Amino acid sequence: MTLKLIATDMDGTLLRDDRTYDYDRMRRLLDEMDARGILFVAASGNQLGQLKNYFAEVGPERINYVSDNGALVTYRGETLAEATLSRTQLSQVITWNNANFAKMENLIILSGDKGAYVSNNVPASIMAETEKYYTNLMQVEKLLDVDDQIFKLSLVWPPTVSVYESVKSLRTVFEGELHATGSGFGSVDVLAHGVNKQTGLVELGKSLNIRPDEMVAFGDNANDLEMLRFVKYPFVMPNAEAFMHDRIKQTALNNNNENGVLDTIEALLDGRLH
């Protein structure tokens, strides 16, 4: 087995439910990966700034990032690729949301280069919860007037709304124009057409001459599927929902709360997994 790139999702995968991981062990594994010339990639729906916060304890400059579910790809601090949503596209999705969920209080979040944005009508309690997942979160009067490059629009609904059905509807309505994917926590992410975590790995592979058969990836949710199907060595987390195990047969050695990603990386580097 030749490994040159290891990519992992964050929420429900590398991160424990308290959004931490074993920092000392991660440092040791990063040292070993660096010594072997293996690239470590955080591939997540999170913003770049939020991802860097997660790696503050181990050195965010040591990590490469596929952020906003593939809309922004960075290598050693340099942008390799980015895909943004136009004002017209944002307006179309917001109009779709208003038409389908007019009587429901749901949250619309724009993730951009300078920060994240929500309506100034969002209650303080929801703002406080949302700030746990976004850096530089700002309330604005009109989302469509935000002066920023927008990588992703997220729709967050109450648990009574089916994420699967919402993704299906968005993909039907915006076929060939936008990409929609479930992103956990009852949310749907809308991205530029053809953008996902796989496209992020494609960009890294192209730039660094790394083939899919030299890549490992870890994930737990629908927004990881393209990435997991792309690499030769995909691992789904034991804590993932059943539909993920139906699609990806190889399972990480432990769940997210028991350091499953780190256990599996260690076993791969030691030659205990092939």
TrEMBL record:
Molecular-function GO terms, alphabetical: magnesium ion binding; phosphatase activity
Gene Ontology cellular component annotations, sorted alphabetically: cytosol
PROSITE patterns registered for this protein in UniProt: COF_2
Keyword Methyltransferase: no
SUPFAM superfamilies (UniProt xref): HAD-like
InterPro entries referenced in this protein's UniProt entry, alphabetically: HAD-like_sf, HAD-SF_hydro_IIB, HAD_sf
Superkingdom per UniProt: Bacteria
Protein name: HAD family hydrolase
Organism: Weissella muntiaci
